[in-house]
User: Fold this.
Amino acid sequence: MPYTTHRKPREDYAFLSMWLTGYDFRVEMGVNTNLRANLLRVRPDDRVFEARNWLEISGKCFDPEERAGEKFVITLSSDPTPEGFSETGRDFQKKGEYGKPQYRTYRGAHVPIFECPQGITPLWRNRKVDPWQGYLKASESYVSDCLTVLTSKAARYMFIHERIIGRDHWINGLSIQSGNPAE
Assistant:
């Protein structure tokens, strides 16, 4: 029987600069639908009334050259307590077999070992012709700030720091800006 080895997926980073091609937003408020629809999903600390902003930003990549013309659609949803934004470095410290934090020795000092998250959110596309899509729950203030910047008409560019692990694409960073990110 042949011996097979499993290779570690290749990691790569890409810095994508793109023109903003449009945006769409929705501001909604109402009764939490889980209270009526699915009582098993309701927790005692859930809010009765919900207010949420949705912001969908579209862009077309122009840098790097090999990715020029690719389209991106990023959807931001506001959340009062978005998942992952309250975590600290201690939450990502590597744990041993019995849950004890692990350390390594660096120049005689014990340094914690961290397991860095893969990214903020994954990027995907269904077919080669479809745009890359991403969905991100962000804080209410961030979505509001993005909407303010977009409505001021000063922002013309979007920048995505992309992390590629094997065939998976992740957003490592996202910004909307008035200056050309490729310069």
In short: Residues 76 and 136 are 5 Å apart (CA to CA).
